[in-house]
């Protein structure tokens, strides 16, 4: 096997509703490896990190944005993928990574990471939802924000 080879196994998915921030509304997903949900301390730590990064990304003058966040509790750490739509059709992204052992195995590549295969499935769902609800003749932001995949594993 190649170094870094991963054998695919479905990950638990929880659709956690819509979270309002000063800059706008974000759908919230929680992905977790293994059979257990993330612990309350892990969720609290990820939420605090998310809050900090949202505040740093957007200032009070930023026009309101709509997007989604993936909190991914993987086997080697936590990834927070903050995604928001601009100009009606462009997806922006900020990825924050916290490794369990504190060592990033690919530090020189980190700023180029889009997402893992599990996160990409959610990003694709969000693209399809955006097309359906926000890029037709009628826009329905509420419908977009309520359009979660009807699955519990991905």
Tags for this model:
alpha+beta, 154 residues, 5-stranded mixed β-sheet
What does this protein structure show overall?
It is built from 3 helices and 5 strands; from the N terminus they run ββαβββαα. The protein has 154 residues and is an alpha+beta fold. It has one domain (12-146). Strands 1-2-3-4-5 form a 5-stranded mixed beta sheet, with helices on both faces. A hairpin with a 2-residue loop joins strand 1 and strand 2 (24-32). The longest helix has 18 residues, at 40-57. The radius of gyration is 16 Å and the shape is globular. The two termini are 24 Å apart. The mean pLDDT is 92.
Average pLDDT confidence is 92
Compute the CA-based radius of gyration: 16 Å
> How many helical stretches?
3
Beta content: 25-35%
In total, the number of strands is 5
Which H/E pattern describes the elements? Answer: EEHEEEHH
Q: What fraction, in percent, of the residue positions are helical? A: 25-40%
What does the main sheet amount to?
5 strands, mixed
Strand order of the largest sheet: 1-2-3-4-5
Poorly predicted runs = none
Structural class: alpha+beta
**Number of structural units classed as domains:** 1
From the N-terminal CA to the C-terminal CA, the straight-line distance is: 24 Å
- Tell me, what's the shape? globular
């Amino acid at each position: 096997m190649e170094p870094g080879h991963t054998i695919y196994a479905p990950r638990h998915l929880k659709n956690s509703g819509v979270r309002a921030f000063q800059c706008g509304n974000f759908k919230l997903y929680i992905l977790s490896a293994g059979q257990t949900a993330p612990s309350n301390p892990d969720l609290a730590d990820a939420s605090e990190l998310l809050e900090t990064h949202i505040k740093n990304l957007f200032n009070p003058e930023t026009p309101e944005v709509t997007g989604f966040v993936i909190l991914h509790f993987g086997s080697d750490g936590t990834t927070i993928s903050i995604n928001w739509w601009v100009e009606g059709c462009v997806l922006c992204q900020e990825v924050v990574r916290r490794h369990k052992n504190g060592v990033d195995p690919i530090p020189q590549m980190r700023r180029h990471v889009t997402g893992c295969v599990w996160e990409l499935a959610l990003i694709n769902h969000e693209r399809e939802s955006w097309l359906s609800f926000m890029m037709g003749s009628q826009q329905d932001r509420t419908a977009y924000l309520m359009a979660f995949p009807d699955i519990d594993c991905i």
